[in-house]
Design a protein that fits this description.
160 residues; alpha/beta; Rossmann fold; four-stranded parallel β-sheet; 5 helices
């Protein structure tokens, strides 16, 4: 909760909320500020909780990096924030978007959102930044890292 407490316990231990929504629970307790009334006529199979990752990722590409038309981008990790980064790159007119993730199950969705090339670094014999440079002939114009790991940040810088 906003006051640092939790309403959940398991075997006497407190369980803290994730992003104040605890969406992996059947029932949850949230602060009043987090509650939004959904119209009864709204199709429940189309209702989705959108958290800050959409504004964060899309904004990183469109407003912070200012991706330019015809540019080449590389996006490390293809989760929720990165999906929004990909959408921002595509909306900005990037001609090539290289997606990097060790989970190939994310590739179909990434392609549907605009990724043109998918790479799994686990399957490569060279460092990912070398492969990206070989693919582009030089380097990328924009590199995005949405994991928060020093190793992938270094790969991002090395791709430019």
């Amino acid at each position: 909760m906003l006051d640092g407490t939790s309403r959940f316990t398991c075997k006497g231990e407190k369980i803290y909320h994730s992003f104040r929504t605890s969406t992996f629970t059947e029932y949850t307790v949230v602060p009043e500020i987090s509650v939004v009334k959904i119209d009864a006529a709204a199709p429940m199979d189309k209702i989705y909780v959108i958290s800050c990752e959409v504004a964060t990722g899309y904004g990183a590409a469109v407003h912070s990096a200012k991706v330019t038309p015809g540019s080449t981008c590389v996006v490390f990790e293809l989760g929720r924030i990165s999906s929004a980064i990909v959408m921002g790159c595509k909306a900005s007119g990037a001609s090539r978007i290289i997606g990097v993730d060790i989970n190939e199950g994310k590739f179909p969705r990434a392609r549907a959102l605009g990724v043109t090339d998918c790479l799994n670094p686990s399957n490569l014999k060279k460092p990912i930044q070398e492969v990206v440079k070989e693919m582009t002939g030089t380097s990328v114009d924009f590199a995005f890292e949405a994991i928060g790991l020093a190793e992938t940040m270094v790969c991002g810088f090395g791709s430019q």
